[in-house]
Amino acid sequence: MWEAAITIKDVVAREGLARIRRIFELDRAWRHRPPAEIKALRDEHLRPHVDPFINWVDVEYDKVKFQRRFLRTALGYAHRQQGTRRS
């Protein structure tokens, strides 16, 4: 997604990066806490960001899945990760 945001200044890619950045910023703040507390914090504070991000990825991926672009590659990767996240 970074390549699409930087090289072609794609608005969708920039939105994706902003969403991902917020998720990682929250998670980074808890890295020194005990695992059980991290899980509780993730469930409470990250889930409201991750679920909408995945839904957004699905919508945006459907728009570009037949194009040959950096954005399709990045969104496709995120789209495929749903199976590992929900397992």
What are the SSEs and their pairings?
Elements: H1 2-7, H2 11-29, H3 35-64, H4 70-80, H5 82-85
Helix pairs in contact: 2-3, 3-4
Report on the structure:
The structure is a single chain. This protein has 87 residues and is mainly alpha-helical. It has one domain. It is built from five helices and no strands. The protein has helices at residues 2-7, 11-29, 35-64, 70-80, 82-85. Helix 2 runs antiparallel to helix 3 (35-64) and helix 3 (35-64) crosses helix 4 (70-80). The chain is elongated, with a radius of gyration of 14 Å.
Radius of gyration: 14 Å
Provide the succession of SSEs: HHHHH
- Fraction of residues in H or I helices: over 70%
What's the count of strands? Answer: 0
Give the strand content.
under 5%
Provide the structure class: mainly alpha
The global form is elongated
Largest sheet: none
Ends apart, CA distance between termini:
24 Å
Write down the domain tally.
1
Short description, anyone?
This protein is mainly α and 87 residues long. It has helices spanning 2-7, 11-29, 35-64, 70-80, 82-85.
